[in-house]
Amino acid sequence: MSEQSRHTALSTRHEAHGASFTDFGGWQMPLKYRSELEEHHTVRRAAGLFDLSHMGEVLVSGPQAAAFLNYALVSNLAVIPVGKAKYSLICTADGGVIDDLITYRLAEDSFLVVPNASNADVVAGELRQRAAGFDVAVEDQSDTTALVAVQGPTAEAVLLDLARPEDAATIRDLKYYAAVEVELAGLPVLLARTGYTGEDGFEIYVGTNFAVRLWDAALEAGAAHGLQPCGLAARDSLRLEAGMPLYGHELGLDTTPFEAGLGPVVSIKKADDFVGRAVLEPLKAVEPARRLVGLRAVGRRSARAGYDVVVDGAPVGTVTSGLPSPTLGYPIALAYVDAAHAAVGTEVQVDLRGRPEPFTVIPTPFYRREKPAGAPQ
Predict the structure, then answer these.
(1) CATH 3.30.70.1400 segments of the chain
(2) How far does Cα 97 stand from its chain's mean position?
(3) Rounded distance, CA 48 to CA 231, Å?
(4) Using omega within 30 degrees of 0 as the cis cutoff, is the peptide bond preceding 365 cis?
(5) Binding positions for substrate (predicted)?
(6) Element of type H or E holding 145
(7) Cα Rg of the chain (Å, integer)
(8) The domain 58-138+256-287: what is its CATH number?
(9) What is the DSSP string of 183-205?
(10) Which of 148, 172, 144 is closest to 222 using CA atoms?
(11) How far apart are CA 104 and CA 368, in angstroms?
(12) 21, 49, 52: which is closest to 206 by C-alpha?
């Protein structure tokens, strides 16, 4: 592993399980343990255990925490009830996306902001700068916080085997995009019902010093439920099937929320001014010149990021992510295309290294799990 990259507290565990590593956002992370295809199917059929400790965690607290986040982010964070979470964006003054992130309201005056790994330092710095004039503290807790995810249909069963009996009902009743403080494997954690796979699942925030204990306990408890460790390759194919954006592919400084189909995340109705409002508010009322769409291959060849989307030989867009879908059995992709070619059912081609291949614009998400009666929404 590269000495220049950072390592999570679970690196030795990944080595012991035979992981192949890759650099991601300056971190050495497990790409896969067995095969990415096997790990992908494990999450769809049972449960996968992911180390996400490369993600950032920034605590925002103080009397004006809600008002500050309403200024710093494009969404209305002040309306989140305690114990709930919201997906949002932090944008530049000219409307470009610095990062997409999840924010949890831990208390009336306390929020946990979770940026992506490659942007964690940037987001923490932006929040500190934007905090000027607000009665608020911004504390980067990334180095002292580990994040482990259990994702898949049997995820709840795994968590129940880790929990105290008195917490069982709390875990069963936890709704999607909600979080609660409980004990798992005898350790205090923040348990959130969130994820990036399209499946039911949980993300577990724990002190870095306890990460190994939690990981080992989860694998032991999960053995009866088909739980296996999974790497970033499976995480990428899972999130693409679920139509979820990846920063640096579908999102970036040259992307507005409206082009990415994230217009509803931008709260123009909130009274507060926010960074980027002067540019984003007028854009909400107009059709973007390009849009992020889903593509399905007519044939068997896959599109990859950076390939041109063409119509009648002329470029009309660019693929941002693409691969053969393990669950669906055919190639899928996300791409930015001119608005004139973005309607569902539109036939386009992707230039696969000089050979145009037919694709069709289809709705996203590509995959949507079947939810049993009474399942969390």
Answers:
(1) 58-138+256-287
(2) 15
(3) 9
(4) yes
(5) 203
(6) strand 145-151
(7) 21
(8) 3.30.70.1400
(9) EETTEEEEEE---SSSSSEEEEE
(10) 148
(11) 25
(12) 52
The token duo for 102 is 């999840």
DSSP character for 351?
E
Query: For the chain, where do the domains classified as CATH 3.30.1360.120 start and end?
Result: 6-54+144-241
- Look at the alpha carbons of 152, 89, 148, 20 in this order and tell me if their dihedral is positive or negative: positive
The tokens for 145 are 């916080």
Contact indicator for 215, 339 with CB cutoff of 8 Å: no
Q: How far is CA 76 from the centre of its chain?
A: 19
39 annotated to a ligand binding site: no
Compute CA distances 77 → 27, 65, 87, 269, whole Å.
Answer: 30, 9, 10, 12
Contact indicator for 305, 343 with CB cutoff of 8 Å: no
**pLDDT tens digits along 145-196:** 999 999 999 999 999 999 999 999 999 999 999 999 999 999 999 999 999 9
Strand pairing of 347-352 and 308-311?
A: antiparallel
Judged by phi (left if over 0) then psi (alpha if -120 to 50, else beta), residue 144 lies in: alpha
What percentage of the chain reaches a pLDDT higher than 70? Answer: 97
Domain at 289-362: CATH code: 2.40.30.110
Q: How confident is the model at residue 375 (pLDDT cuts 50, 70, 90)?
A: very low
Q: pTM, whole model, 2 decimals?
A: 0.95
What's the half-sphere exposure (Cβ side, CA atoms, 13 Å) at 11? Answer: 15
Which phi and psi (to 5°) does residue 25 adopt?
Answer: 60, 30
Name the pLDDT band for 376 (thresholds 50, 70, 90): very low
Where does residue 252 rank: exposed (0-12), middle (13-18), buried (19+ CB within 10 A)?
A: middle
- Which are the contacts of 271, defined by CB distance < 8 A and separation ≥ 6? none
Ranges of H-type helices in 131-165:
155-162
Domain 6-54+144-241 has CATH 3.30.1360.120: yes
Q: For the chain, what's the residue count?
A: 377
pLDDT of amino acid 23: 95
Structure tokens at 150: 């259990």
Residues of the chain with CATH 2.40.30.110: 289-362
Residue type at position 236: D
